[in-house]
Amino acid sequence: MTAQLHWQTEGQGSDLLLIHGWGMNGAVWQQVLPELTQHYRVHVVDLPGYGHSRHHPAVDVDEMANMLLAQAPEQAIWLGWSLGGLVATTAALQAPGRVQKLVTVASSPRFAAEKTWRGIKPEVLDDFRRQLDLDFRATIERFMALQAMGSRTARQDIRQLKEAVLSRPEPNPAALALGLDILARVDLRPELAAVSQPWLRLYGRLDGLVPAKVARDLDSLAPQSQQHVFAAASHAPFISHPDEFIDTLKAFTG
After folding, report:
1. Is 82 a catalytic residue?
2. Is residue 235 annotated as part of the catalytic site, yes or no?
3. pLDDT tens across 86-129, in order?
4. Residue 225: active-site member
5. What is the per-residue pLDDT across 220-239, written as a single tens digit (0 to 9) for each?
6. Which of 199, 215, 208 minimizes the C-alpha distance to 233?
7. Active-site option among 15, 235, 240, 241
8. CB atoms within 10 A of CB 251
9. CA–CA separation, 226 vs 142, rounded Å?
10. pTM (2 d.p.)
11. Which one of 20, 53, 56, 82 is the catalytic residue?
């Protein structure tokens, strides 16, 4: 039997599934939820090992996607932020009939940087991994600061992220370690051409974790997709620019 993850469902319209990022939980979407629920039937999940799903960790990104598919609507628009974008893309590849449209936000098929690929420096991820063992709360706070860096509303963005995370149970340390491992090792680039759904990729021009250059690189790796870059946003455009974020989503999902 599949572990029962924590879901919150409200609103009317097409089914829209929201997937949070590393170290976070479903509460990160609270600011945009009132507007989204006027247009969609929104399903917010706490990923395996996070928030109210903290007692049900997964072993890899494939199992995370499988656990979500086991409880998700039969057909839905899947929207994943950051690490959640990897989970949503994995689900789109595993079950194309279930994922009607794919939206990835400040996400990358390969988060770790390498010679010709922009991303998070491997030593930064190693540093996070070491810090996690010492003080995982401080590590998550540092990650939140990195996510908001560059945004004009950085202080406010960090406060909102922090309030959201602290409103639900702390993540499972094993899930946090797995998440960092996924960010360091997973590489979906060879599989992107197989994504058959309409796919919208959203980026923040000031994002230090998923540089805007990734958007251009993916234009050739996934020519079937489309992209939008928020000019003044960093890693969390749905927090810093909620109206533009919702308008862009509505235009794509039509």
Report:
1. yes
2. yes
3. 999 999 999 999 999 999 999 999 999 999 999 999 999 999 88
4. no
5. 999 999 999 999 999 999 99
6. 208
7. 235
8. 10
9. 31
10. 0.96
11. 82
